[in-house]
Structures are given as structure tokens and as C-alpha cells.
Amino acid sequence: MTENMLKFVDHEQETPVKRVASKRTGDFHEIYADYITAKAEMQAARCSQCGVPFCQVHCPLHNNIPDWLKLTAEGRLQEAYDLSSATNSMPEICGRICPQDRLCEGNCVIEQSGHGAVTIGAVERYITDTAWEKGWVKEIKPLQERSQSVGIIGAGPAGMAAAEALRLQGYQVHIYDRYDRAGGLLIYGIPGFKLEKSIVERRSKRLVDSGIVFHQDFEVGRDASLAQIRAKHDAVLVATGVYKARDIRCPGVGASGLHQAMTYLTASNRKGMGDMVEAFESGELNAQDKHVVVIGGGGTAMDCVRTAVRQGAKSVKCLYRRDRANMPGSMREVTNAEEEGVEFIWQTAPKAFQTGKQDQITGVKAIRMRLGAPDASGRQSPVEITGSEFTEKADLVLTALGFLPEDLLTLFDAPELPVTDWGTIQTDFKTGATALEGVYAAGDIVRGASLVVWAIKDGLDAADAIHKFI
Ligand SMILES: Cc1cc2nc3c(=O)[nH]c(=O)nc-3n(C[C@H](O)[C@H](O)[C@H](O)COP(=O)(O)OP(=O)(O)OC[C@H]3O[C@@H](n4cnc5c(N)ncnc54)[C@H](O)[C@@H]3O)c2cc1C
Ligand code: SF4
Fold it and tell me: Which residues contact 452 (CB under 8 A, 6 or more apart)?
């Protein structure tokens, strides 16, 4: 059926069907169903085809959203796919996990007028899921093969996006990654209930089938230095992400049962993919029958609490030092977590970890906070409320306080690599070029912990610059 556009008054906003909490917490499958065709067309037809599309402006990839919504509404899905994939190398992944409320949909004009945004992410996902189903997503076939090669360190979204663009230009592309599977945080960080692993695996398989060579279990720093990788290739892209967890400093750190978020999520993701994970089997990294406390209020904390629910925790609580309105995580994820039974204890900070026999954690001593005067950035700083201490029972405590870059200069044996005061790689903002000739960088290792869509954007920009350089 073909739909006319500007139907935002006739058709209400309808997001894809969400599985009920009692059902979805029994497994790690995605919680949203795909649109059926009629629904996708109807929802795409709500677009008001603005002269200045703010959705497109606020999408980091500047996706041509109004045009692919119109093509979808008209039933011209293959053309919609061609257009959508021209600017985004992973549209179905962004459609699933972009925080659309802060990006495209948050800036949709009909959202501002109170009609509810066009469900851009869900339509984007529908277009490309359909393309995979129909066989429209093909291997990359360069028009000409080039003899030059590019070495990419890191098989996360930044590295994969760059690899695809460079292969399309005919370069011989080699990706080196220390994990045993490609995908970076798409595989080992983000849980299956947000992004099923098969969606990422079909993307990396397509790159393999297109002639890109993956060197998994290959750690730059251990298996080769940066200089050795540079000597092998005409250009190098560093896309290694940020993995050093921010420390928590209070009495009791080091107790048994206190873990960093990524250690816990990686174990859970590995288990889900059928790996034998000793620390999970022993119970150390399994939340089953435990009282779990997660410290932090970002996306990683939300993934931890919701994973713990699915593992069968007795209770799951999230401690965050600011209030709901000031938390960094997506509101959609907070709502999902609350529906699944997670309790948020807002405006609370840990003071100490209490332990029992064999140094096993038994509780978190916490204190209530209030928002004080705004700091230089205008954000109110949390201040402790004297005498408000209390103890929260816990058998497993997970810290999700953000990530920092590793010490790349030492790791890569490359003191000449320019880094910022925060340890991220210093690059030219537009091209990703570093001060070392032929060495580029992209993704979280440049921006600090960020988003998949920004990693893709950086990877594509760097690929463009590498092509011009070579
Ligand atoms: C738990 C969690 C949930 C998240 N959820 C979301 C979300 O819902 N939506 C969203 O948009 N973003 C989310 N993010 C952020 C997003 O995953 C990152 O911004 C994105 O993956 C960064 O991509 P990247 O390619 O720069 O790095 P990564 O994805 O981290 O990939 C880096 C790769 O480099 C490899 N590597 C590192 N060092 C070396 C070395 N020395 N040698 C060889 N290989 C190396 C790593 O093994 C890894 O495969 C989440 C992050 C986390 C931690
Ligand atoms: S890539 Fe992300 S921000 Fe851009 S249109 Fe898709 S969901 Fe929106």
C-alpha cells in the first residue's frame, strides 16, 4: 500500500511492539519486534518533509532521513535501502541502539509540535532488516583492485566502517583485533536484548566475504608494535576504543564480589554465545539468586542491571548520585529497566563496601545526596546530606563509572604517537589524521567513550582521508 506523506495528524505515533517485561526477562533476545510492512509505511508517512530537516542535521551521519521515509511510505523499499546505506554502513544497528531521543527523533519537528516524533530508528531498522532478508545486501565488489594496503587496529564499529569504505575503493584491508570475534563492544559490551549477536555477525561475515582479512586474537603491543604494523601497510587506522574502567575509591575496594561492568558484561555475552566462561560457571560473575547493586547512571549501568535481572537476581538496585532528570543514560532504557523490576535509588553515592567471611561483599554503605549549586558548566553538583548514611544489602556489586583510554604509548611501544591530556589520540578533527604520517585514528579512542553512530562517522571520515592520502 502506498501512503501519502504528512499523516502525523491522522496516524498516531506507534513504536514497534515491545515484549512484556515478564516474558522478555526470561531470555536475552531483543525486546522490540520488527515493524510489519503496513505499519512501517504508515509510520514513515507521518514525516512532515520539512524544508530544513532537523532530524538529518542532528543525525551524526546526516542520513537523508526524509527521503528514505518517503520512499518507504511509497513502498519503494529497495530504493530506500540504497539511500539509507549510502551514508550509514550499519543502519539496522543504529536503528536498534542509537539514543534517538537525543539525536534524530529528539529533533523531529512533529515531536516539537506535540504529535510524537516519526519513529525514525524503527523505520531505519525495518528497511535494512528487509534488505538482508531479500538479499539486497551484497558483498563489496570494488570497481578496481589496488595494490596498496591499509592496516586497521580494532574491529569495532569505527574499524569496520572504515574497512568497508576502503575495500569499496579497492584497497587490501587487514583488521587486527585482540578479541577472538569481530565487532568490539557490539559483541562484548552491548547485551543481546538491545542488539542480537547474529545482527553483528552477518555484518562481519559480509566483510570477510568481501575480501577483508581479519586477524583476530592479535593484540598490537603484544603481537606487533605500531611501527611493525606501519611497516606492513601504506596507511594505518587506530580504532581501539576505550577499555580502562574508571576507578572507585572507598574502603572495601578489592573485596570478593565487586566487579567492573565490562568484566561482568563480557562474561555474560560470552556465555550467551556458547563460550565456556569459568568465572560465570563458578558463580562469581553470575547474578543468579544474588542481591545485586550497580553503581552508575549511564548506558553501561543500564545494561548491567538488565542483565542481572535476566540472570535471575533476587533484587537489582541502581545507585546514582544525581536525580532521574540528570542521569546520563537514555530515558528509554531507564523505563525498560524499571518495567523489568530494577529499583533506582537516586541521589545516592557509595561510601564503603562491607564484607563478611573470606572478604565476600555483603553490602554497600551509601549516603544520600542533594543537588547543590551549579558548577562552571551550569550543571548542579551533588552534595552529601550529613547523617543520611544507610546500608544496601549486596552479594554482587558492579561499578559502571565510565571508561578511559589505555596507555597506548606504552602498549604500542610508540612514544611518538600524539595523545591528549586524557590519553585519547590527538587527531585532526575532520580527517582523523595524527601527526604521524599515514597514521589515522577514529572512534572512542579519539572521542572518549561515545556512541556507535559517532564511531561509524569517524571511521568513514578517516577512510576518506586515507584514500586521499594514498
Ligand atoms: C556496555 C556498553 C553499552 C553500550 N551501549 C551503546 C548503545 O546502546 N548505543 C550506542 O550508540 N553506543 C553504546 N555504547 C558505546 C559504543 O559501544 C562505543 O561508542 C563504540 O563501540 C565505539 O566503537 P569503536 O570502534 O571506537 O571501539 P570498540 O567498539 O571498543 O572496538 C575497539 C576494538 O579494538 C580492539 N582493540 C583494542 N585494543 C587493541 C589492541 N591493542 N590490539 C588489537 N585490537 C585492539 C578491541 O578488541 C575492540 O574490538 C555502549 C558501550 C558499552 C561499554
Ligand atoms: S543513525 Fe542514529 S541518529 Fe542517525 S537516523 Fe539512524 S537512528 Fe537516527
Answer: 90, 93, 94, 97, 98, 157, 185, 186
What are the strands, taking DSSP E only, across 64-184? 149-153, 172-176
Measured by CA distance, the residue closest to atom 3 of ligand 2 is: 59
Cell numbers of 276, please? Answer: 565456556
**Stated pTM of the model:** 0.97
User: Can you tell me which atom of ligand 2 is nearest the CA of 124?
Assistant: 6
Residues in the chain: 470
Give tens-digit pLDDT for 335-388.
999 999 999 999 999 999 999 999 999 999 999 999 888 877 777 888 999 999
- Write out pLDDT tens, residues 98-133: 999 889 999 999 888 889 999 999 999 999 999 999
For a mutational test of ligand 2's pocket, the pick from 56, 63, 72, i.e. the residue with the most ligand atoms closer than 8 A to its C-beta, is: 63
Nearest to 69 by CA among 80, 58, 78: 80
Surface-to-core class of residue 335, CB atoms within 10 Å of its CB (0-12 exposed, 13-18 middle, 19+ buried): exposed
Torsion of CA 156, 157, 161, 162, to 10 degrees: -50
Residues with CB under 6 A from ligand 2: 59, 61, 63, 65, 88, 94-95, 98, 100, 103-104, 120-121, 124, 453
